[in-house]
Amino acid sequence: MVFRTALTEALGIAIPVVQGGMQWVGYAELASAVSNAGGLGILTALTQPTPEDLRKEINRCRKMTTKPFAVNITLLPSLVPPDYGAYAQVVIDEGIKIVETAGNSPGPIIKQLKTAGIKILHKCTTIRHALSAEKLGVDFLSIDGFECAGHVGETDITNFVLLRRAMQSLKTPFIASGGFADGEGLAGALALGACGINMGTRFMCTVEAPIHNNIKQAIVDASEDQTELLLRRWRNTSRLYKNKVAVAAKKIELESTTGKFEEIAPYVSGKRGRQVFITGDVDEGVWTAGPVMGLIHDIPTCEVLLKRIEKEAEDSINRISSLIVPSKSKL
User: Which InterPro entries does the UniProt entry name for this protein (predicted)?
Assistant: First the structure.
């Protein structure tokens, strides 16, 4: 059997699973492997230092897959913001059909992309933001529960409630993000009204993920309580792997009498985080991971993982369906 949802139908994919756009992880190696396996692979635009580098990465990915893949453009607070419009223009020029957007004030970028006929999958951590994105005409919403890695928002609403609120309030089809690693999770998300799932941490722990194997093994060895929430003091809360750097940064955040970001900045440097994935030293810097680590026990290929998820979801749905039996006739 195959799954047919609004997501698979619109995007031309076989399995309703999206690989999240991850900084320093969303390269062609992983995106192409996910797409080849039947899901939707995503290149992370800002992992590339310039728009022209993104163009090269898109072309590199095309040499690795003939299946649909997307590009992630995340708009985040920055003293010197990237030229988001230029990145979006490269996406348009290269004929990309699907873009995942996220972050602050995405309206201009979404308008630029929609004008070119690109399908937009926009990430939200609240129903309020999702309703605003609907008004911008996005095609799909990615509803991110508090369980997600990276930017979790400031409301701390978990997926069990957030997805049901999405079903009650939204007209736009949505996928579920945060805490998903297997087919049982996919079946649960479908039951709660989603048309697919987004996975980040789970895809980090695959053969094709372009990060050091030590990091993959650290994810396998970790439990669900090995994450740390940082930057809440500055309303930019991020969920990170709980290593020595994250613990030291959290102590500064809680105890600082000045509240100056400069005190914590060296600990949360993106450059240090990137080195983690290159050197394999889990304590080199901060890096994102979710509590879903507690559900991850191996490092499969993307093909093995997605086939397993598809089978697990089917088995789970059939098991639940078997609980429904004819009612006994009353005498």
Answer: Aldolase_TIM, NMO
- The half-sphere exposure of 119 on its side-chain side, counting CA atoms within 13 A, is 18
Within 10 Å of residue 169's Cβ, how many Cβ atoms? 12
Q: Is the pLDDT of residue 329 over 80?
A: no
Instruction: Report the C-alpha gap between 36 and 326 in whole angstroms.
Output: 42
Each domain of the chain, given as residue ranges in start order, spans: 6-211, 227-279
Q: Is 192 helix (H, G, I), strand (E, B) or coil?
A: coil
CA distances from 206 to 19, 68, 72, 92, 304 (A): 12, 20, 20, 30, 9
285-310 pLDDT, tens digit each: 999 999 999 999 999 999 999 999 99
Determine contact, residues 209/30, Cβ cutoff 8 Å: yes
pTM summary value:
0.96
Structure confidence at residue 330 as a pLDDT band (50, 70, 90) = low
Query: What's the chain's Rg over C-alpha atoms?
Result: 20
231-264 exposure pattern, b = at least 16 Cβ within 10 A, e = fewer = beeeeebbbbbbbebbeebbeebeeeeeeeeeeb
Closest-CA residue to 163 (of 180, 145, 150): 145
Tokens of 174: 């949505």
> Which tokens belong to 3?
């799954």
Instruction: Write out the two tokens for 281.
Output: 């030293």
Cα 35 from Cα 14, distance rounded (Å): 9
| Helix (H) / strand (E) containing 227 | strand 227-230
